[in-house]
Write a structure and sequence with these properties.
Chain lengths: ~230, ~190
């Protein structure tokens, strides 16, 4: 074992601060930095009473500046939370969903516009003449989604020969229309219509129909995606 | 690390606090504006929800009234009459009450049994007090003429409804002509 590994003798605690910080004055010897005149004699100091044992220090209280900082940070965090909540409410919530209790979740103006579009599209699709059958088929397809247009063209081509040979003309009158369901993406309109058919110049009887027309909101506006006439 | 406010090291803290004050103030202004927007949005949505819920209530009332009328049996006509009158008001109620005796006799005479349901009901117009609904139905009728075999009968109807103390009641009902196969009534 080396000397450095030995435990050092503990320095006395009691009175140690006094003896270290305040040198004793000796009679007949002037201290170099003391203002006392040479020859002054100071009576010996009585020994100081022993200091009580040190109690644990109380935690340091934050300074006023730190308190303000903490309060500001807390306030900012709280305000950011409130702002986040407001942003979510204003911009990030889901749109209301169509249900039987609430079948329409769009404004009245938007709903009426979509229903009107659906009714006019139905008229455009159903009203046809043998004179310009192909052109009218193409024109009608512009009011449909591509998938429904493909389905429509298949049917239109299948009946074209008979339709033209019989010199058929179909006129359509929309008599009633109403909204069944409506969201921002899709609207279903119930349309009542009367169909007037002429073949070889002979007027056939007027036939009333009802149709559920589904239109979907696309970049090109409301387009027909389905027609149900059951 | 402790930084004394009063001493030379207090300046950074004062600067930091000043920045924090500005950030907090801007955020406070933003949240106040956001709060106003939220309040307005909430008000708008509450109004829209109330308006949109009317569509469901009106469709439901119209569907119930039409289906009450469509489902009728010659041997239990009173049950149908009671159901229809429960959802009726005004002139339609009076008309139906007046016609009910004759209708019961006719149903018994032809031993008619009619069933049906509303396939689609669309709202043509609506406000807080009144609404117009069109309805398309599917169903069957069986009577002496069909040798008591059910025959398909589809109808198109238009109903005028009014809001009576929060309940939508039918004030007028019109049978619209449907295709040839569906023409005619239960008798």
């Amino acid at each position: 074992m080396t000397d450095s590994s030995r435990p050092h003798p503990r320095r006395p605690v009691v009175g140690s601060r006094t003896s270290a910080s305040r040198p004793r004055k000796v009679a007949g010897r002037a201290a170099s930095d003391a203002p006392d005149r040479a020859g002054d004699v100071e009576p010996p100091e009585p020994p100081e009473p022993p200091e009580p044992p040190e109690s644990p220090k109380p935690p340091a209280e934050p300074r006023p500046a730190n308190r303000v900082t903490v309060a500001l940070v807390v306030a900012i965090v709280a305000l950011v939370g409130v702002a986040a909540g407001e942003s979510w409410y204003l911009w990030l919530r889901d749109d209301p969903v169509v249900s039987s209790d609430r079948p329409v979740v769009t404004s009245e103006v938007a709903t009426a516009s979509a229903v009107d579009t659906a009714a006019r599209a139905l008229q455009k699709i159903l009203a046809t003449s043998w004179k310009d059958y192909t052109e009218q088929t193409d024109e009608a397809a512009t009011a449909m989604t591509s998938a429904f247009a493909e389905e429509y063209r298949t049917t239109a081509e299948a009946i074209e020969e008979d339709f033209v040979a019989a010199k058929t003309e179909v006129q359509v009158e929309i008599t009633h229309q109403g909204v069944v369901r409506a969201s921002t993406e899709q609207v279903q309109a119930l349309v009542f219509l009367t169909e007037y058919v002429t073949r070889n110049g002979t007027h056939l009887k007027a036939t009333p129909y009802r149709a559920l027309v589904t239109v979907v909101n696309t970049d090109e506006g409301w387009l027909v995606s389905d027609i149900d006439t059951r | 690390m402790e930084v004394a406010l009063g001493g030379p090291g207090g300046r950074p803290v004062r600067r930091l606090n000043a920045v924090l004050y500005v950030v907090a103030l801007l955020l406070a202004c933003g949240t106040v504006i956001g709060g106003v927007l939220v309040w307005r949005q909430d008000d708008t949505e509450a109004t829209a929800a109330a308006t949109q819920s009317r569509y469901g209530a009106v469709q439901s009332a119209a569907t119930a009234e039409v289906e009450a009328m469509l489902n009728v049996r010659y041997d239990d006509a009173q049950a149908t009459i009671d159901k229809v009158l429960a959802g009726a008001t005004g002139k339609f109620k009076k008309q139906y009450e007046n016609a009910s005796d004759g209708m019961v006799q006719l149903l018994k005479l032809h031993t008619s049994v009619m069933t049906g349901e509303v396939v689609w009901a669309g709202v043509s117009s609506i406000d807080a007090d009144s609404a117009t609904v069109i309805a398309a139905t599917e169903g069957t009728v069986a009577n002496k003429a069909s040798r008591n075999q059910p025959v398909a009968r589809n109808f198109r109807l238009q109903l005028e409804l009014v809001n009576v103390d929060g309940t939508w009641l039918t004030d007028n009902l019109t049978w619209l002509p449907d295709n040839a196969d569906a023409a005619g009534g239960a008798s």
